Amino acid sequence: VEKLILPAIMENLDPMLDFVEKSAHAAGFEKAFLNKIRLVCEEALVNIINYAYPNSKGEVKIQCGVDTDRATFVIQITDSGLAFNPFERPDPDITLSVQDREIGGLGIFMIRQIMDQFSYKRDNDHNVMLLEKKLP
Amino acid sequence: MAASYPVEIQGTTATFTLSGRLDAVSAPGLADELKKLIGKQLQKVVFNSSNLDYLSSAGLRAIVFAKQKLGAEPEVIILKPKTDVLDVIKMAGFDSFLTIQE
Fold this sequence. Notes:
By secondary structure, chain A is of the alpha+beta class. Chain A is built from three helices and five strands; from the N terminus they run βααββαββ.
């Protein structure tokens, strides 16, 4: 399992996503899927960067690795900010007209579309998000 | 680090040339450029996407701003999107109000 810990600020989004993309590539995902992994993690991390630490500075920890028993690539994202379960939100209605479309919630919707498993738990004052994708 | 995007205006058409990644880091730059076009009564906003490699919901938010907030609800055209970018547009259901042009 590889690990990266960085301050949760937008300036660190690219290095965070590069880290995940590199791990996914090493795990055996094709180029075509790396952008999707990047997208999933961007949506998860931007939430944390924008909302987890409203009045303080904090860090985000990203762990990536392969669960060989289950042939699954696992991404765990941990922060110690405000408790927030992104998966509690209902999916946006993507059939609404353009003027009525809400853009919030779209990122989580895309995580659901792309990943095989996703979960959230509050653990010891930490938000822990698990994102899983079967290896190709 | 918001990127800047070249925009060309001809008559009632504005054309943006996108490249690299349109994500949470770069999208605010595009949103700023789009805000300058408010009230110009544009009929078409074209996003030339032939060099765009990646699009996230933050990028989509900037693009949909063109449709929702510029007034007169211009036609928004995504020109020559790559497969990855088109996938995201379709996944979000945005292909129903954006014009995809090869």
